[in-house]
Amino acid sequence: MDPLPSLSLGAHEGPVVAISFRSSRSMCDTPPQDAHRGSEHVLRPNAERPEQLKTEAAVTCEWPVATISRRSGVSRRKTPLGSRAGSTSTASPKATRSISVTRSGCAAKKTGGRTARPGRQLTLAQYLRSWGRWRPPSTAKLPRSFRRTWRAALGGLAVGKAVGVVAASIEADVATGAGGSRVGQLVGRGYPTKLNSAGQTQPYNPVNGQYLSPSANPGLRLSPVAQVSSGFGQGYASAVTGGMVPDAVTNLQAWAQVLGHMVGSIAP
Amino acid sequence: MHHWLIALIGAVVGVGLFLWWYGQRPYRYKNIQRNKLARFLETLLHRGYQGGLLILETKRSGPERKFLQFSKYIGQDGRAGLEFGFPLAVWSRPYYDVLRKELEAEGIRFQLHDTGRQDTLQFLVVDIGPDVALAQRVADLAVHTVFGSTHSSFQAFYQNVSPRAERIGR
Q1: CB-CB under 8 Å, A254 with B71
Q2: Residues with Cβ within 8 Å of residue A126, at least 6 apart in sequence
Q3: Is B123 in the A-facing interface, judged by CB distances under 8 Å?
């Protein structure tokens, strides 16, 4: 049998009809004594010579550690293939259908802990799809008090992180007097302003002093979302009541007024 | 199948966002002559929204980029006016005092607004009001002082100005 360059040992959710693994010296921390041989074993429910498979598995795979379970993700017990491979391979053909290998030491290193279908190499699309299937470990069998504490801890972490981000951004804004904070980068930029001749704020680029559009600064009053929503509301109200549309602050608001007026003319 | 659908939707959204960004860029008028600025200033005064801008520049980017800017304001009474603002920044330091002296020599009133910052220290502000002739004089003076004779023509673009022929403000 030709030496194979990589090891793939894993399982998918549900019954497994075949288990295969490949070994290589380069994939594990502690190479086996006979890794140069390489091996590939396939267990099938109707395998003709299960005893021979048992023997080969016990001889060639002493070092990788696999997690073998009756059903994937329900009950797991770690089993060194070398010492307990016999118990796996001597299972009856009927029982073999429900045996799945979910993870091994080497497979976890190869696939980043993702489960893989046994007996075949993953394509890129399959690998990416496997990420979408991943779920955090189930805590269904843990005590209820522990689950409650676990959820509270997770929630606390999320809230704490959000508070930290906001606090850091506010601190950065106060320190610099300008944008560039993480929140600022999310919603827009925060530019310094000066008062124009009408007493209204005029944002400008602090680097070269160039004036900027009033909508350059994020804010409830002039943010793009606020422009669209207020313009749409003004146009809609004008269409329904027949009142005058106020002057638009920006082009975006003007178009939203037109759209709102059209919808208001049709909808009622 | 779903993945391809998601990828297709993502691609369509991406192309749409790119086109939206591309369409949002202001149109740049090239080879503008100094004596033809009145038309641009009048357009800004009539069709500009609150805070609408007219930027005159020699180059689009780079350290040699120099610009002049006029902005529109609408007062509480609805009357519109123009304002010329020249910053005291790194690039404009050689021209700032010269322009100030030129304005003083021409008898044009201006104000100096401190920003309290270290990068853009000050603004020289001329409140032009609705007087387009005065705006033309200020623009002529500023172009001569800042752009000099090496840039006989320059670029101009608007920001926040209505594309329709309408009058915004009084």
Answers
A1: no
A2: A117
A3: yes
For testing contact with chain B, the best of A193, A195, A207, A208 (most B CBs within 10 A): A208
Would you state the pLDDT for residue B59? 77
Give, in degrees to the nearest 5, the angle at Cα A219 between A216 and A220: 135
Residue spans of the domains in chain A: they are 25-133, 144-216, 224-266
With a CB cutoff of 8 Å and minimum separation 6, the contacts of B62 are: none
**Would you call B73 and A198 a contact, using CB atoms and an 8 Å cutoff?**
yes
Q: How far apart are CA A189 and CA A186, in angstroms?
A: 8
**Taking 70 as the threshold, does the pLDDT of residue B107 lie above it?**
yes
B-chain residues near A209 (CB < 8 A): 85-89, 92, 120, 123
Specify which of A107-116, A146-155, A211-220, A256-265 reaches the highest per-range mean pLDDT.
A256-265
Beta strands in chain B (DSSP E): 28-33, 48-57, 67-74, 80-88, 111-114, 122-129, 153-161
Instruction: Please determine, for residue A133, whether its predicted confidence score (pLDDT) is greater than 50.
Output: yes
Query: For B119-159, how does the pLDDT look when each residue is reduced to its tens digit (9 = 90+)?
Result: 899 999 999 989 999 999 999 999 999 988 766 678 899 98
Average pLDDT of span A72-92: 42
| Alpha helices (H) along A72-123 | 81-89, 93-96, 105-111
Q: Which of B72, B127, B160 to mutate to test the interface with A (most CBs of A within 10 A)?
A: B160
Q: What is the mean pLDDT of residues A238-258?
A: 83
- Number of helices and strands in chain A (H, E): 9, 5
What are the pLDDT digits (tens) for B49-69? 888 899 998 877 777 788 999
Compare all CA atoms of chain A with the CA of B166 and give the residue at the minimum distance: A247
C-alpha atoms less than 13 angstroms from C-alpha of A84 in its C-beta half-sphere:
10
**B160 contact residues in A (CB cutoff 8 A):** 213-215, 250-251
Task: Give the H or E element holding residue A113.
Answer: none
Q: Which of B38, B48, B54 is nearest to B74 (CA)?
A: B48
Question: Dihedral of CA B138/B142/B143/B145: which sign?
Answer: positive
* Residue A207 banded pLDDT, cuts 50, 70, 90: confident
Give B112's contacts in chain A (Cβ within 8 Å). none
Answering whether pTM is above 0.80, one says no
Q: Does B38 touch chain A (CB under 8 A)?
A: no
Report the pLDDT value the prediction gives residue A161, as an integer from 0 to 100: 66
